[in-house]
Structure formats: C-alpha cells, structure tokens
Design brief:
The protein is an alpha/beta fold. The two termini are 40 Å apart. Strand 2, helix 2 and strand 3 form a beta-alpha-beta unit. The protein is built from 13 helices and 8 strands. A 6-stranded parallel beta sheet has the order 1-8-5-4-2-3. The protein has a two-stranded antiparallel sheet with strand order 6-7. Helix 6 packs parallel to helix 10, helix 9 runs antiparallel to helix 11 and helix 9 crosses helix 13. It is 47% helix and 10% strand. Bound molecules: zinc ion.
Length: 400
C-alpha cells in the first residue's frame, strides 16, 4: 500500500461518561441562540434530559427545540430551514441517533444559504457544489452506530415511487464538536444496540477493506474492531455495563472517522436501496448482510484476484475478532465469516423477509446498489454475486 494519503477535516472530540454536561458551555461559545435537534426516541422523556435542559438554561442559552421523527427526508430538511432561517440561530446542537445527527448536520449547512437540499444531493437533482457557509454544529450521539458525529455527510431518504437514500456531502458540514457520552447508551433498547453496533462493525470492516484504505485509518479501524469485539455482545445483553458502553461508543466514533476518509463497500451499497424501498433500519440492513457480503467478497476475490491484498486483510480481521492465531489465511477468513454469522444470530437480526422483501424484489435492489459505497468495495462484484448476498439473508432459514 502506498504511504500517501490525506486526512480530511475532523471534529474536535469530547469523549467520556459525563461529557454531555459540557454541551451548554460548548454551544455558548458560538452564541446565545441554539437550535436543538433531537430524535423521536426517548431523550426528552429520559432520565438524562432534565439536567441537560437545566444546563442550557444556566448557561443563558435560548433554546429552540426541533424534533425529528424517522430518517430525515429532503422535504423535512427544507421545511426546517424555512422555519428557522429568520430566527438568528447561532449554533445547531443535535442530540440523538443517526437520523437526528444527519438532520441537524443538513439544517446547519443550509440555514444560512437557504436553498433546497436537493440542489446538492448526490446522484439526484442538479448536484450543485455547496459553497456554505454552514452554521456551527455540535453532534452528540445517543446510539453507538452510525458515526455521523464524525462524518461530512447527511443521509436523506425518500419513500414510495422512485425512492432513494442519498447523501448531502461536504467537508464544511463536519461537526465543530463531537460530544460522545457513552452514558446515553444506558437507555438504548437492545434491538437498537444490535443494529447500530453491527453498523459500526461493518463501517470499520469496510473502511479497512476499502480501495481507499490508508495506514492512518487502518490503525483506527483495527482498534475499533477490537473494541467492538470486546463490547458489542456484552452491551446487547446488559446496557448497564459501563465498560461495554464506552467500548461501543468508541468503536462507533472511530467508524465515522474512518468511513469519512476511506468510503465503504458492498454492505452499504445494498443498505441504501434496502432502506429506501423497504422499512429496514440502516443498522439492521448492515447487520443482517455483513456476514453474507464478507463470504461473497472473499469468494469473488479468491476466484478472480487471488493475489489481491484484501484477502490478507480479511484474514487479519478474522484473527483479530476471533482472538485466535490461525496460521493459515484461508482458515482465518472462514473463521471471520463464521463469527459474523454467529453474531448475526446472537443479536437476533431479522432476515429480509421480515420486512416484506421477496426474491422478486432482489433485481431492483441489486440495480440500485451501485452508489458511492459500492465504488470502494475491494472487488467489482457481478450482479449475480450481489444477488447472492441478498439470497443468503432472504429468510432466517438461509438460502432458498
Ligand atoms: Zn452505516
């Protein structure tokens, strides 16, 4: 691998149990009026909110609340921009899962320019360059999964006819601060922990296998994978486990840092149409496909490009995640696939038929899977190979 790479802008990072209490002071550094974007889930009803709310008031901040329900659509972003653009907002603070963070990121990017987000969405509309300026943005994730607090893109979705899931992407959208407090995970439902945790794991794996992988991100991806190995199943069983919470919050943050630099792979290529056409949460789409996609990538590489460095990389990850020093690379790769399959079962990740997907839907999903993520997959997969990934997870009982 070439030792030349560029690392794009990162947020300043505050990490650790209790760092949420720094949010009001950090926001106050940008001005008095805060647009606070939260998700549909429990933060405002949860045990951590009263103290946070009191902290914003004590810092003398004027907080305008905006709630996001479900994955944000371009229309929802435009409506929020129109609603708040004359309110003299000084900083956008998003506290929530990937949907709330992506919504906050897109709103912060457009509140000053005021134009529709469709102007800039990749692969749809005119794809005009984004010139900013963006408002200051602070991202505080309450789930461990998407890594959105560290990335430069906001994923927006539409549903129904012509549905899509596409990114508004620019370096100016990167949060000024990522405030990562693992305590937020204490109230995260197990199914959300499972899906998001497998999303983080997939993002780390796909970053490490990406055609744009680099030594800097490799180090972060491997450390993130080691933390996911030590934390994910434990956190799923017991969200009260503080060490597991910290481990997954850290793995997720690293996954956001690496994916923003390296891009992703076939799992994320497929997750986009799955999430646009069917009610499959992003993390579940990734979690349910990652074992099958890993098996298909390994077999495609072995058949067509047996000297490809990605094969050795899959073996490295197999040894890392299993904790076993397989002398033979092939054995290490087989152990990786077996471990991912076992985790998929232990985390109770539903198969595709659970979401109303049939075999007849596969061609449409495959046809829409070649977005930006698929372009950094270690090998160009044939349609039949992408199909095979879906077939393997069509029903819980396996292929056929
Ligand atoms: Zn993801």
């Amino acid at each position: 691998m070439a030792m030349d790479f560029a690392i794009a802008r990162l947020p300043r990072i505050e990490f650790g149990a209790g760092v949420r209490h720094r949010l009001p002071a950090l926001a106050a550094g940008f001005g008095r009026r805060v647009l606070l974007v939260t998700g549909g889930r429990s933060l405002l009803q949860g045990p951590l909110w009263p103290e946070l709310e009191a902290g914003f008031a004590a810092a003398g901040l004027d907080v305008i609340g905006h709630r996001v329900s479900g994955e944000p659509s371009p229309e929802a972003i435009d409506a929020a921009v129109q609603r708040y653009r004359d309110r003299n907002v000084s900083v956008v603070v998003a506290i929530g899962g990937g949907s709330a963070l992506d919504a906050g990121k897109a709103i912060a990017g457009l509140l000053l320019p005021g134009n529709p987000v469709l102007d800039h969405l990749e692969g749809v509309g005119p794809e005009r360059p984004y010139d900013g300026p963006a408002l200051p943005f602070i991202a505080a994730p309450t789930t461990a999964g998407t890594g959105s607090e560290a990335t430069r893109n906001a994923v927006l979705s539409t549903h129904g006819e012509g549905a899509y899931k596409k990114s508004f992407r620019d370096e100016r959208l990167v949060a000024d601060y990522a405030v990562v407090d693992p305590d937020f995970l204490a109230t995260c439902p197990p199914a959300v922990i499972a899906g998001n945790g497998m999303d983080a794991l997939t993002q780390l794996l796909e970053s490490y296998l990406s055609l744009r992988a680099n030594p800097f991100c490799d180090a972060l991806a491997l450390d993130g994978l080691a933390h996911a190995r030590d934390s994910l199943l434990g956190l799923y069983r017991d969200p009260g486990d503080a060490a597991a919470r910290a481990g997954m919050a850290y793995a997720s943050l690293l996954s956001g840092i690496t994916l923003a630099q390296t891009g992703l792979g076939s799992v994320h290529g497929l997750a986009a149409p799955l999430g646009a056409f069917f009610p499959v949460p992003h993390g579940v789409a990734c979690g349910t496909l990652v074992a099958a996609a890993t098996a298909v990538n390994i077999s495609a590489l072995s058949a067509r490009e047996p000297g490809h460095p990605a094969l050795a990389r899959y073996a490295v990850v197999g040894r890392l995640l299993t904790g076993r020093a397989y002398p033979d690379d092939g054995e290490a790769r087989a152990a990786l696939v077996a471990l991912l399959e076992a985790w998929t079962g232990q985390l109770d990740l539903p198969a595709l038929d659970h979401f109303g997907i049939t075999i007849g839907d596969h061609p449409r999903i495959v046809a829409n899977s070649r977005g930006s993520s698929m372009k950094t997959n270690p090998i160009v997969l044939e349609d039949s190979e992408i199909s095979a990934i879906l077939e393997a997870r069509q029903s819980a009982s396996g292929p056929g």
